[in-house]
């Protein structure tokens, strides 16, 4: 049962909810929000937890338990498959490092230590992803009146993005005149050079994506790593990634000859006739 909405001195709105009984006395929780709309949203999420039978005595809740509830309420069924895979990897690291800690015991130092250990492995981008996720998880804890302050507040991860460079004229010639390579290897390299496609987009190409009449390639899907298994996601990394790219003359002849030489729908399959893994050996040709 919810009580009347109230406005606090700090400007936030609050609504108190009776979530059960303990020792004959009502157990209450308070949901907060900067606006009435936000309070009502947080209230609905709380009631959803109650309906699902989630234990709401959160004083002893662990980071792993909170993380699971955050993901189930906020992300599950709402993100793309490749994002799910990325989240899974980050969540495993969080669970392994601080999953058994009680949420109320996590401090800024706890988070800094986790980030530092990850950065010592050279995984700066992963460290940044961990911080972003933990900030969201602890914000969720604040919304549900589990903690009062986010231990991630004020923390940042600084790292230098890898600098991209333009191929030299010699490197371009080496690609065009590559000898000793199989046809599919050369076509793969030419696709990267003349279209700018990502490797996952190339590995998901099918015959129907190649429009010989209009000399263009339709890009509307990508290959992702689904827990070690390749999976074609019927969307690109972003909506802006859906596009048509022209088939330039240096690419046209080798691409069309290669397509005519194979009898499969996908242009790139492994020796067993299955989808290529995103990190397949063919990638080593351009590293």
The biggest beta sheet reads:
3 strands, antiparallel
Give the fraction of residues assigned to helices.
40-55%
What's the helix count?
9
Q: Which residue ranges are poorly predicted, with pLDDT under 50 across at least 5 consecutive positions?
A: 283-287
Radius of gyration using CA atoms only: 26 Å
Strand share of the residues?
5-15%
Give the termini separation.
61 Å
How many discrete domains?
3
Structural class category: alpha+beta
CATH superfamily of the largest domain: Intergrase catalytic core
CATH architectural grouping of the largest domain: Orthogonal Bundle
CATH topology of the largest domain: the name is hpI Integrase, Chain A
The global form is elongated
- At the first level of CATH, the class of the largest domain is Mainly Alpha
Average pLDDT figure? 84
What's the helix-strand series? EEEHHHHHHHHEEEEEH
In short:
The protein has 287 residues and is of the alpha+beta class. The chain has helices at residues 36-51, 63-74, 81-98, 108-120, 124-143, 169-176, 183-195, 199-203, 249-261, and strands at 6-7, 13-22, 25-33, 210-211, 216-219, 222-226, 229-233, 243-246.
């Amino acid at each position: 049962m919810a009580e009347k909405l109230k406005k606090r001195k700090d400007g936030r709105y609050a609504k108190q909810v009776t979530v059960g009984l303990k020792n004959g006395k009502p157990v209450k929780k308070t949901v907060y929000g900067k606006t009435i709309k936000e309070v009502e949203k947080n209230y609905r999420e709380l009631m959803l937890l109650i309906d699902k039978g989630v234990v709401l005595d959160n004083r002893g809740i662990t980071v792993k338990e909170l993380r699971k509830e955050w993901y189930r309420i906020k992300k599950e069924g709402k993100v793309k498959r490749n994002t799910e895979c990325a989240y899974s990897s980050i969540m495993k690291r969080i669970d392994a490092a601080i999953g058994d800690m009680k949420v109320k015991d996590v401090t800024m130092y706890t988070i800094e230590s986790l980030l530092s250990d990850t950065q010592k492995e050279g995984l700066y981008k992963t460290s940044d992803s961990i911080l972003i996720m933990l900030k969201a998880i602890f914000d969720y804890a604040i919304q549900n009146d589990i903690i009062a302050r986010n231990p991630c507040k004020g923390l940042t991860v600084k790292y230098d993005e890898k600098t991209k460079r333009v191929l030299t004229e010699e490197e371009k010639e080496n690609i065009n005149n590559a000898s000793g390579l199989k046809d599919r290897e050369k076509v793969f390299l030419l696709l990267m050079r003349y279209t700018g496609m990502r490797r996952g987009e190339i590995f998901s190409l099918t015959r129907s994506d190649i429009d010989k009449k209009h000399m263009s390639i339709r890009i509307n899907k990508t290959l992702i790593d689904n827990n070690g298994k390749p999976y074609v996601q019927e969307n690109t990394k972003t909506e802006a990634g859906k596009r048509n790219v022209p088939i330039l003359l240096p690419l046209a002849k080798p691409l069309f000859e290669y397509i005519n030489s194979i009898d499969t729908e996908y242009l790139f399959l492994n020796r067993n006739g299955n989808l290529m893994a995103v990190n397949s050996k063919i990638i080593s040709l351009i590293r």
